[in-house]
Amino acid sequence: MHVIRVGEEYTPSVLKWPDGCHYRYDTSGHWLHYLFHHPSSIEKESVQSGPAQFALYIHESVIFFLHHFGEMLWNNAPYSWWLVPDEERQLPDFDDGLHALLKVVLVDTLTGRVAAMRALTFSADFTKRLHAEIRAQSGKPWSLSEHEKIIRHVYARYSTDDLLVRAQVRCRGGE
């Protein structure tokens, strides 16, 4: 089992990291990765201990996971269950009272080292909706080109702030 620690390499086998934000649900649960080139102290503090908020915007078969930590701007990460490798793909539980745990890791893409990390929960309502959307997504026909077309269409029409206004569900981290 790989142990993640601040200051240590996140994944020693990865030599080059793409910048961006990535949400993923797999056999190890919910993950949010911030991959930033030399993250600032504000970004580190925001991820480590700032107030957290989450929202979901669903457009056709794509789940847009919106997230905000501390003083950082709102950001989003499109998600598809189908992009998770088969051996790591798993459907989430469907329990009305479940408060799912999200693990957040900020990786410095310059060094590949963990700059900050945190774990916090979603509200029960947010968890229920997110899990329902992932389950629904798994039952829909899959096409990578269609998935990418939907993302391009949404990004051409809406900013992250626009997606936030249109979000179907929201919660604060730790609820």
Summarize the structure in short.
It is built from four helices and eight strands; from the N terminus they run E-E-H-E-E-E-E-E-H-H-H-E.
Q: What keywords describe this structure?
A:
175 residues, alpha+beta, 4-stranded mixed beta sheet, 8 strands
Count the domains: 1
Largest sheet: 4 strands, mixed
Pick out the low-confidence regions.
none
Order of strands across the biggest sheet? 1-2-6-7
- Total strands: 8
Query: Structural class of the helices, strands and pairings?
Result: alpha+beta
Kindly, what is the distance between the CA atoms of the first and last residues, rounded to a whole number of angstroms? Answer: 28 Å
Bin the helical content: 25-40%
Tell me, rounded to a whole number, the average pLDDT: 93
Order of helices and strands: EEHEEEEEHHHE
